[in-house]
Amino acid sequence: MSDISPTGTIVPELEPDFTASDPYQVLGVQRTATQLEIKRRYFELIRQHPPETEAETFKIIRSAYEKIKDVKRRSATDIFLPKKPPAWTPPKKLPEFDTDFYAQDVLRVLQLWGDLSRTDFKEDFKEIEL
Amino acid sequence: MSKRSSRRKRRVQQKQKQARTTGAALVLEGKQAFKQADYKVAIEKWSQALYKKDRPPTLPNALAEAYFRRALSVESKTAVKDFNEAIKLNATEPCYRYHLGLFHHRSGNHSKAEAIYRELLSLDDPYTRAAVPLAQLLIAQKKSVTKDVVVKYLSDQDKLQLAAAEALIKKKATSTMTRLFDSSALDPFWRGLLAVALNKPDIAHKNLADAVEQVTPQVQAVAQYYLGVLAAKNNQIDVALAKWQEAKAKGLKSKHLQRNLSTISYQQAIREQQAGHIRKAVELVDQIQHAEDMGKDFAKFQQQIDWEMGYLAAQNKEWSEAVKRWEHVIEAGDKSRGLIFNLALAYQHSERYISSAERWRELLRRRPRKADHPDKLSDDQVAQIWGTIAENYSKGEEYDEAIKTYKNAVKWAPENIDLRLKLVEAYQTEGRWQAATNEINRVLERKPDHVPALIMLAESYADDWAFSQRGKDAWLRVLEIEPTNPIARQQLAHHYIRRGEMASRWGGIERAIAIFKEGLEHLPDNPQLLLAIGISYSYSKQFDETRHYFDLALATDPTNLNSLYAMCMIWSDLGSEADLKNVIDSIKSLPTNTPSQFFSEIIDVFLEKDMTDMAMDLLHVLEQNYADDEGAVIYLASTYSLDLNDSKKAIVLLKGLLEKNPNNGQAHVQLGVVYYRMGQTRIGKSHWNKAEKIARETNDGLLRFKVKSVRDELIHGKRTPQASFDMLRNMPPDVFEELIRTAPPEVAEMLQNMDPDMLVDMMMNMSDIDEDDFYV
Hints:
The complex is a heterodimer of chains A (130) and B (776). With 130 residues, chain A is mainly alpha-helical.
């Protein structure tokens, strides 16, 4: 799973994600990684997940590596990977709290005062004489 | 009697009945309803009693009270009318008028309310309860209370609180507020609000906090709001948030409260977004009401959040969520290439192929052309995108567009064989065989040994007799390059078999054998060709040759069921028991996962031809190897019972099956048939009943139909559809001729080329009935 840096750019964690469709995520490398970094990472992962004991995981790692193992394949893969969101800087000025005193709040209380807000007037009921 | 006179008569009768009811009775009925708070009935009864001579003098007052109480009830829709009725009936009761005043006051009908309050205060015995609401009304209208006559009816305590409210509403001078603020009799709530207005935060906080304990929840909401304001001023945002949330929970809905809550959500959302917690940021943004109050940057923040949420969704393969988010960003005005690209990709994954193709095209139109631009696409990349567009059109079933765009892709990367082959596929899909062939030839000019292209070329010719030779040459070329290519081997064999069969059909058995043997030169171990040659030799009565090729076919593929079945048919037709025995030995050696239906079909053939020993041989194999196959056991039981008259054996088999699976409805049907035929009709019927119950429970229409069929046939002697088909099949020639003579011309023309068997087959096909369904 990716995370977002304080500057707003998305930085993949260096944890491989074998369920991802993005080969960079599978290998746990950044999209800006050099070919050498990718290769090193690949070797590291296949040592951790050898084909003899973890055939399925190995296949996933291998397949991801195949997609970006050289510049030509990488360029063909890169053009069909989702583009990262643009960098974004928070606005310098945010809306401030409204700390004014409002007469309408007093009017509201006034409406709620005494008989106006009451609903139970049983004490105003009179006994009938028939 | 007319309807009108009938109605008139009913009305007269009703009036007479009412007249007969005494006043006392009506009063009593009304009293009972009144006690049960059913004021509607009370009013109805007492209103009738009002005009009776024997009604009590206090009845108008009681009726007035009933109207009054009904007016006060929550569900009252005619409150004003009821209050007025109460007042009319008991004019001396000020309370009724007071409540009418309150009703008008709450409804915003202030002038009527004020008039009533003033009237009540001007009575000889002033109704002073009206003073407070009148004062509230005056303050709300920004009128002076102190200069109004109402002031003399207010208590000192009320005067003080109302003066505080008046000062705050009218924003009176600080000195006035300070004077009120200093009064020790003032409630903490009002003192707290005055302190807020006088900018005395500590005192405000203390008094409002005290007031929260003493006032109603609705007033508490206002106190909590200003406690929040004090906290916000003191930069205690968490405290402010808690207080404002409490105010909201207690029913305060003021715009400034919403704005402050939204501001907090906005600030928190930015913090979460910056920390990379996009989902949390989205939750907070969703809480913001009145987004227009959040400033112009808020819209941009929302766009950013949607952008990032779309990206997160895409990473998690939640493509429809990604589409939704990115569409929001586009709608908000962002038309960046990165976004168009992502949306194209997301549409594609969401299977919205045409939308995807359109976005990809937009992206290509807007691609940077300058050589030094960082986002410039290479020719290969442009070709790849055109290829993707074409693929989307193809999946969206826009084949013309797919062809056009594949052609574009090929223009950008003429040496890209994969793209050219995709173009071929698109041509083939549209049935444009010549264009497909031309394109394949272009591929083969570049790569003469390209196997997939050669396979496509062969497939292009496959169904066209005129070009079958070219197709064969293409398959042979594939086999030269890849001798074990399974598709080429299979298709080449198919080519020879089709040609051989065609020759055979026209009586050229020798020609057919020659064609099959030509195929065998290329595919020496092909069991289909070996079998075909064997069968052809049997037609020309060269049985040694037949035997030889059948042996070769079995040696090549001993488990080929088609071969074994065909050999059984041929040898049984010819009555060659020795050859048949050899084939049966091969059948007995088949692996145990061979479908049991294969055995049953061959057994049926033997039984039809009275080869009972052969049939028994295979029945034993079936019994031994397929004891767990319920279909096989039912077939065995049916065969033992109907064909071999061994009902006991059938019963043992079916009971064994039902012990393992008591819910097998077919087994019950069959067991019922066996018992019924043995004369044990009661047991037979009970099994059919069980089958019917199972059919009902499992909603199995076919099983239900089978039960009905066996009952119809065995109990009632009715003809089943099978019997009807049999009747058709066995119809005498003169009846069939009569049928043709009387049929409509177009049907008659068709029937003339048919015999009764063909007619039955056609009817079964038309009605989608499987003859096997009727066997029981």
